[in-house]
């Protein structure tokens, strides 16, 4: 907060909410001046959904969060179904309507999984938080978790790992010291990471860069005093590396394959 940040992004699975809550309590910032996002696991039934969300509030020491997300369209073992997604979403709606969240959304969801939710939703799906960064601009829907469809449906597309943190070496350094981003950065007096982050925000995509190093936190926020040219934006969008990280292949995040997992389970 001392550096000007006002968005706190956490989750039950991160196992850091007690510490985050203590930091929020110690911060000399009014509650209406900062925004808290948390996440509950996917694959929960109605009662477990409410209990998990309540536990997030308890650990954070808050009466409400600004945004609560369902972290995955199934449990983390990829066991899930349309019925379970709909049950969890409706339970989260009820929880939010009780005053405990100002907005709710999803993470790691693709088109089919979003459609399952939209079929029953009475509250807008505010956000889909997914991995997205330079190197994925021209990638297909399996890589981007159906980026264009999310926009079509009015779901804010938010980038986590905007610097390709989960990518395997050496790809995890390409948006830090790679030739493309550093060459463009030199023209603006900016670093490679600042160029990579600016590419996202210049498209209207909010980003969640992760760091606990003060100089990096400062640098990550210092991206609003320059603008990439149309030619630079095109070059960055056309880049095919680094591809999505953490999935089964360079063209597949692994999130959209939940449908296939369901088919296997039904056989």
- Our estimate of the beta-strand percent is 5-15%
The backbone outline, from C-alpha atoms, is: globular
Distance from first to last alpha carbon: 51 Å
**What is the residue-mean pLDDT, rounded to a whole number?**
95
What does this 3D model show about the protein?
With 267 residues, this protein is α/β, with parallel strands linked by helices. Helix content is 41%, strand content 12%. The protein has helices at 17-26, 46-60, 82-100, 111-118, 141-144, 147-152, 174-177, 179-186, 192-201, 214-221, 230-238, 258-266, and strands at 7-9, 35-40, 67-70, 104-107, 125-131, 156-160, 207-208. The chain has a 7-stranded parallel beta sheet with strand order 1-2-3-4-5-6-7. Strand 2 (35-40), helix 2 (46-60) and strand 3 form a beta-alpha-beta unit. The model has no long low-confidence stretch (mean pLDDT 95).
What's a concise summary of this model?
The protein is built from twelve helices and seven strands. By secondary structure, the protein is α/β, with parallel strands linked by helices.
SSE blueprint:
Blueprint lengths: L6 E3 L7 H10 L8 E6 L5 H15 L6 E4 L11 H19 L3 E4 L3 H8 L6 E7 L9 H4 L2 H6 L3 E5 L13 H4 L1 H8 L5 H10 L5 E2 L5 H8 L8 H9 L19 H9 L1
Parallel strand pairs: 1-2, 2-3, 3-4, 4-5, 5-6, 6-7
Helix pairs in contact: 1-2, 2-3, 8-9
Task: List the main descriptive attributes of the protein structure presented here.
single chain; 12% strand; 41% helix; 12 helices; 267 residues; 7 strands; seven-stranded parallel beta sheet; globular; alpha/beta
């Amino acid at each position: 907060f001392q550096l000007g940040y006002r968005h706190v992004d956490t989750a039950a699975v991160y196992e850091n909410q007690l510490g985050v809550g203590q930091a929020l309590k110690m911060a000399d910032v009014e509650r209406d001046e900062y925004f808290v996002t948390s996440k509950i696991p996917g694959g929960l039934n109605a009662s477990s959904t409410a209990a998990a969300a309540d536990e997030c509030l308890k650990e954070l020491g808050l009466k409400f969060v600004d945004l609560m997300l369902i972290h995955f369209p199934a449990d983390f073992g990829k066991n899930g179904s349309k019925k379970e997604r709909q049950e969890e979403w409706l339970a989260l709606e009820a929880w939010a309507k009780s005053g405990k969240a100002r907005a709710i959304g999803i993470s790691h969801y693709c088109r089919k999984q979003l459609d399952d939710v939209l079929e029953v939703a009475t509250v807008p799906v505010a956000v889909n938080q997914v991995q997205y960064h330079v190197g994925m601009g021209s990638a297909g829907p399996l890589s981007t978790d159906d980026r264009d469809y999310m926009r079509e449906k009015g779901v804010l597309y938010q980038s986590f790992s905007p610097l390709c943190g989960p990518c395997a070496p050496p790809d995890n350094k390409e948006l830090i010291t790679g030739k493309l981003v550093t060459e463009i950065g030199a023209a603006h007096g900016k670093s490679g990471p600042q160029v990579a982050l600016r590419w996202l925000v210049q498209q209207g995509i909010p980003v969640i860069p992760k760091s606990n190093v003060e100089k990096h936190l400062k640098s990550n926020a210092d991206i609003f005093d320059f603008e990439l040219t149309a030619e630079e934006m095109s070059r960055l969008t056309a880049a095919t590396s680094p591809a999505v990280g953490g999935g089964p292949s360079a063209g597949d995040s692994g999130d959209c394959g939940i449908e296939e997992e369901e088919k296997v389970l039904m056989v």
